[in-house]
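forwarding from the other thread:

> can someone predict this with zinc ion?

sure thing
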Amino acid sequence: MALRSTSAAAGPAGSLVSGDVRRHNLSIVARYVVDHGASSRSQIADGAGLTRGSVTALASLLLDAGVLREDAPQDSRGKGRPLTLLHLAADDVAILALQLDADEVTAVVATLSGEPLLRIAEHHGRPMGAPEPILDLMASVLGRALDACAGLGRRLVDSTVVVFAPVGGTPPVVVADTDLGWGRVDVLAGLRAREPRTPPSMRLLPDSVLAAQAELGLLEDGRDMVYIKSNSGIGGAIIVDGTVVAGAHDVAGALGHLPLVPGGEQCGCGQRGCLVTVSGPDAVLRAAGLGRLLESDGLSAALDELVSRILAGEQHASAAWNDAAEWIARALQVLAMALDPRVIVLGGYWAPLADSIAESFAQNRPAAVPGDPWIGTAVVPGRLDRDAALLGALWSARDRLLLDPLQIST
Ligand SMILES: [Zn+2]
């Protein structure tokens, strides 16, 4: 809903209100053009619920700041005045996401609207328990991305490091990364020590929260959701009323460590019988007879092979998956009763296997009460494949910048 500037906003106390209203309305205009593509001033006014006069004034500020540009008037074939369309400009800026997963370091430089301009990916060989060589590679990939960004004539206005691990503290650090055998690692300080151009405002965020936010943005009614995914390890995020639940110790959503199996295997987190010990990718790959492929070709390639074998009905892969899916379904049943989310979204390599998890999930749910039908939680596949977290980083940077669009030009 658009805020309108009113005469009540005048005066010393009102000038701040007026500035907030103007920033909010600038954000609405820029956001409209990002969401709907090139638009005329009257389309924006009608679509965003602003007056045409205020859209003209707001657009003028955004044009002066270089956030928008306008094309030459189009011939409107005699119907009123020629139509001038406003486009997102910001051709001189870029946003960056640098991602570390269990296989690779990936950098993506994108436009303000989140369209990738370039991508650099390097395998790190998964040296367990050794952050130093991985930080060296991350800094080198970051340096190449910064060079490429400068080569494109673009100034970096937002950057995020995405890690497949929980993040906590101030300044934020990786709390522990069981995929790489890390304890507490200050990734941002490690990058700054190696690459002096590391942006001071660079963020460090966990992949599961970013992936969850990206998937949430694609849902019709995205307010309450549990996101759970597996690519390296098992991670997740709980979103209640549009907000990610962090918990008292920043570990809410670490769903791979739901301790489900009584007296089960010791987990890296210190508990026994965690979900990841029975349904994590390493456990499933080994049970499916793909342990050697995991060692030789890396996790992503081994998981691709696992999924194709399961979908083809291969005996060992299917048996390993059925065992894993039963534990995953049990975890989802517990989460559904604890949180009653509208939807549980399955990401990573579980997305193409979502039907089998949903089927197992449905086998132990409360019965419908006659006349008071049980509104069941839906279990659905994610739509963003393995780039969900990278896209989440780029889209959330875009959303953050568009909240105050004039900051982009400074
Ligand atoms: Zn655990």
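Residues 106 and 323 are 33 Å apart (CA to CA). thats all i got for now
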